[in-house]
Amino acid sequence: MWDSFDRVIRRPLDLAQIPFGFTMGNHDGSGAVSGGQLAFARDRAIASDYWNRINPALPFIDRAQFPFYYSFLQDQVFYLVWDASTAQLDQQQLAWVEQQLASEPAQSAKARLVIGHLPLYPVAVNRDRPGEFLNNADQLQQLLERYKVQAYISGHNHAYYPGRSGPLELLNAGALGGGPRQLLGSDLAPLQNPDHHLICSGSRWFASAIPPIDCRNFQWLILQPFRPAS
Prior knowledge:
Layout: H1 2-15, H2 26-29, E1 33-34, E2 37-38, H3 41-54, E3 60-65, E4 69-74, E5 77-81, H4 91-102, H5 104-107, E6 111-115, H6 137-146, E7 151-154, E8 161-165, E9 168-172, E10 200-201, E11 204-205
């Protein structure tokens, strides 16, 4: 898997001198625990070996737990990547999140963005079951708001949906490959992911977008958080 990723995605971005931040998904190196042990320890070891061997040229603030969670500062925007490959962020990681967001580099940045695989709230059909979105989402949202995080960017739903919950902007990235899903409460057919959901940094894209979109004029929808199906 990582050989294909390296050939198709990482190397072209590297040749184009486009900085590339990422987050681990549940199929990349899940942090799921079973019987007190990592259920996918081998997958995580392979992922860790690949990314530490590549050693991407990101302006890291903290990379002690890279590639699973780390932070960096790009164009005066503070990026925190947490390990949301499972629904539960453990206490060690949460303590790190708070320490990072409270830090001088984060608080003096022009903006703060958090990136993770599972969303705070589900937006797609068959993704509104426990385990498919982060546990304790309301408390996590309060934590992000406390430190003035502008947006949380996530995947997993396979449904593109930019929205907002309270003051926190939520960008649900869609499916680049197969398996786009229908939005909850919508009768529209699933849509393949648009090519313009990559991250804005000020008035620039942090990674290239096709077609290019002026971040200064990007409008957000209002998200009413979806709650778990009963």
